[in-house]
Recover the amino acids of this structure.
């Protein structure tokens, strides 16, 4: 793992700094036999197996580096909303400041100016210790799992084992603000042969073609933090011209995003059947 992402789950306080990693390791020990089984025999998981995989997917989401910007974004939104509520009128603000012994610190007009010049423009950063991300991740597991269970899930099987893995295994896409509740589609590659697709509404089962795999793989390429994983360097992916490409050296994230923006098309290129 890159140096900037070392010790992501090493607690800064407490008697055992690796206690969170030990908890995550226990969860992985529990799911390991199922992952091995589905690699050797990639099939549609039964109800109990799907629940186990959804739990594993939720855990994977909170433990990768890309989870942190997600938490930071939510924290900034909550901070902005809390300040807006505090500044809804002068009397409410003054009562709150007096309650916390801060009446002589920042007056109402100064706070309104700060909100206008800094908060509303997003010209600020919030910094959190490791412990904050760890706690927020574990606190949000049940909510994430509930949202995953509300979806309609399908198992997509690539006979050639051409699905990409990445350091951001949970991929969500759609329009507007994308999250576990609002995303039009969620992809979770269990292994290179088996991928789970979760949609908001029931969808028709589709035959997995090479072009479909290419369209799915572009999710991994566009959303990865730094690395994708494939046993074959000539894996299929869909390029900016909506053609299946097998030369990873020609991949350009900028070109593909510009192409999608030009056509106002989300990265969900697989809404319709990929022929």
């Amino acid at each position: 793992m890159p140096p900037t992402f070392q010790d992501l789950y090493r607690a800064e306080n407490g008697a055992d700094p690796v206690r969170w990693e030990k908890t995550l390791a226990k969860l992985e020990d529990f799911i390991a036999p199922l992952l091995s089984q589905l690699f050797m025999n990639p099939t549609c998981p039964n109800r109990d197996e799907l629940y186990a995989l959804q739990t594993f997917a939720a855990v994977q989401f909170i433990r990768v580096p890309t989870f942190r910007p997600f938490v930071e974004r939510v924290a900034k939104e909550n901070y902005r909303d809390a300040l807006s509520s505090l500044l809804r009128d002068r009397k409410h603000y003054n009562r709150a400041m007096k309650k916390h012994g801060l009446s002589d610190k920042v007056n109402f007009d100064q706070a309104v100016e700060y909100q206008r010049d800094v908060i509303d423009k997003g010209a600020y950063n919030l910094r959190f210790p490791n412990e904050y991300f760890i706690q927020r991740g574990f606190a949000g597991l049940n909510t994430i799992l509930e949202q995953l269970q509300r979806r309609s899930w399908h198992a997509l099987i690539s006979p050639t084992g051409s699905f990409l893995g990445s350091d951001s295994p949970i991929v969500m896409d759609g329009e507007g603000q994308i999250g576990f509740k609002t995303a039009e589609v969620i992809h979770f590659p269990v292994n290179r042969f088996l991928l789970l697709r979760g949609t908001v509404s029931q969808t028709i089962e589709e035959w997995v073609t090479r072009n479909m795999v290419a369209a799915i793989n572009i999710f991994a390429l566009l959303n990865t933090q730094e690395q994708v994983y494939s046993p074959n360097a000539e894996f299929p992916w869909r390029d900016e011209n909506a053609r299946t490409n097998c030369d990873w050296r020609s991949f350009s994230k900028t070109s593909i995003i510009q192409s999608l923006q030009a056509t106002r098309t989300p990265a969900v290129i697989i809404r319709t059947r990929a022929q």
About this structure: The chain has two domains: 1-150, 151-275.
